[in-house]
Amino acid sequence: MDTDGLIGPARDGNQRAIARLITHVADGDADGRQIVGELFRLGGHAKITGVTGAPGAGKSTLVSGLVTSMRSGPGRVAVVAVDPSSPFTGGAILGDRIRMSEHADDPNVFIRSVANRGHLGGIASSTPAVIAALDGLGFDEVVIETVGVGQSEVEIASVCDTTIVVVNPGWGDGIQTAKAGFLEIADIFVVNKADRPEASTTIKDLGSMLDIGPTTEWRPPVLATIATERSGIDDLWLSINEHRAHLASEGRMEQVHRDRVRHALIGALRDSIEHTVDAIGDEAIEDLVERRVDPWTLADRLLAAR
C-alpha cells in the first residue's frame, strides 16, 4: 500500500484520504499498523477530550455543539463516535454521525463512527490507534464519544486529557453514580437537558457527592446545559480549557500523556496476543482440551517465542 500517497493528502485535509486511512487503522489490518506507525511519530500535539455518560443523555448533540465552539478558532477538529456494532455487518450503526451532520460541509471537521465490536469500556479496542492517527494527521482537537453503555464506560479516561461525564436530570442516585465509577473519572460533570424540573436537584446531588468525596487539586465543575439550544456549551468549552491549564500548571500533563501511551501499549499487546492465539492452530488448542498443557504454560511459551 502506498501510504505516502494517502498520508500527504490526508495531512493537507483531504477528507477522502483521511477516511481511507482511518478505515485501515480501525480495522487493525497490516496497512493500518503501518499507517499508525508512521503517523505516531508525527503526533503528540492534539488535545483529547472524552464525552461519556448513560444512553439518552444527549451526548451527540452536546458534542456537536462543542465542535462549534472548538471551531471558533483556527484549529482542525476530529470526532470519533464509538457506536454499537451492527449484529449483521460488525460495523458501526452510524447514529452519532447522522446527528452531527451540521458539520458535514466544514473541511476542518472530520467525524467518524467506529464500531465497538463488543469491546467493553465504552470505547473500541482500536480507539487509541485511531486517536494516534488523527493526532499525526494534524488535528488540533480530538473528541471521543463513548458508545453509551452505562456503568462500563470508565475506560474513556485512559485515552483522554479531559473526561466529561454527561447525565440527565433525575438520572440515578448518588450510589449508582459512584458505582459507575464516574466520580473517579469525571473532570467535568454536565447535567444536560437542564430545562427539566429535576435539573437543580441533580446538580445539587452531584455537588454533595463531590463534597463527601476525596479532596483533590481539581474539583470537577458541575455545569448545566441544554444542548439542543446550545445553552451552556460555551461554558463547557471554557471549563475544558481551564482543566487543561490546571494540568499544565501542576505539571501533570506529561504524566497524562505517559499514562495514555502506556494504555495504548497494553492494548497493542493484547491485540497482538489475540492474533497469536488465532494463529497457533488447532493442534495447540487440542493440547489444551486434552490437558497435555495448561493455558498458563502455553502462554509463557508463546510469549517467549515472539
Secondary structure: helix percent: 40-55%
Poorly predicted residue ranges = 85-93, 118-122
* Shape summary: globular
Strand segment count: 7
> Secondary-structure element sequence?
HHHEHEHEHEEHHEHEHHHH
Please report which band the strand proportion falls in: under 5%, 5-15%, 15-25%, 25-35%, 35-45% or over 45%: 5-15%
Q: What is the CATH topology descriptor of the largest domain? A: Rossmann fold
The radius of gyration computed from the alpha-carbon positions, rounded to a whole number of angstroms, is 21 Å
Mean pLDDT: 84
What's the main sheet like? Answer: 7 strands, parallel
- Total number of helices: 13
State the secondary-structure class. Answer: alpha/beta
Walkthrough of the structure:
It is a single chain. The protein is α/β, with parallel strands linked by helices. The protein folds into 2 domains: 44-249, Rossmann fold; 263-305, no CATH class. The chain is 48% helix and 13% strand. The chain has 13 helices and 7 strands. The protein has helices at residues 4-11, 15-27, 30-40, 59-70, 95-99, 127-136, 174-179, 182-185, 199-212, 233-249, 253-279, 282-289, 295-305, and strands at residues 47-53, 77-83, 109-115, 141-145, 162-167, 188-191, 222-224. It has a 7-stranded parallel β-sheet, with helices on both faces. Strand 2 (77-83), helix 5 (95-99) and strand 3 form a beta-alpha-beta unit. Helix 2 runs antiparallel to helix 6 and helix 3 crosses helix 6 (127-136). The longest helix has 27 residues, at 253-279. The protein is globular. The relative contact order is 0.12. Residues 85-93 and 118-122 have low confidence and may be disordered.
